[in-house]
Amino acid sequence: MNVLAVIPARMASSRFPGKPLADILGLPMVEHVRRRVSLCPLIHDVVVATCDREILDAVTACRGKAVMTASTHERGTDRIAEAARAVSCDIVLNVQGDEPLVRPEMFEPLLAPLLHEPEVLCTNLVTEIVAEEEFESPDVVKTVFDTRGNVIYFSREPIPSRSKAGRMAFKKYKQLGIIAFRSDVLQRFATLPPTPLEKIESVDMMRLIEHGYPIRIVETRFQSIGVDTPADLAQAIETMKKDPLLSAYSGK
User: Fold this and answer.
1) I need a labelling partner for 92 at 20 to 30 A (CA). Which of 36, 147, 168, 183 fits?
2) DSSP 3-state assignment of 112?
């Protein structure tokens, strides 16, 4: 199957304007993401989808592929759907442009259900929350799922309820902003009207759930640093300095 990876990126951000072009050891953040995604052998092509000429110019200057999309998209998934519409592919991988420490090893287990299980329509990469501040942070999208591994709900609030759990031990999970769709399901998503819970939670994947489409979770042991603030960027830079993967692509 042909797998296309699309990285949505835009300059506008209430918490960190211009963050896709934030410098990390000599490369724009979005370029780190593009190059790291390209290291996965299952991915046939990688493109950055943006509504900002500055981002397109920065990516193409690094010999990467980028396409201009409409500036009216409220959700990243709608931007990805537009970028993928002109490309013949079976699976579309969504990787957020503010995850500069993604690893190619993350993508293979995420893609596996779509490659081998025809009934699976969409997969979402999650990892266990280990820091209590992440569980409380509205910047982190938490999730709960059923015994079959399908998502029940996403929220920026702490879920499940810690106060109601009492002394019961439970694991806490967050989504990593790395999602894979069958191409036709992604295009169907773009035609569906936004839903109430999607708007309340500010999580576009709630649109699929509210319209009755199952989302399979895939757990990874890898932790990634999503950059939402300048403080996150500083942490990403320090972590990147010690990352052995950097040498595999920084000279390209």
Assistant:
1) 147
2) helix
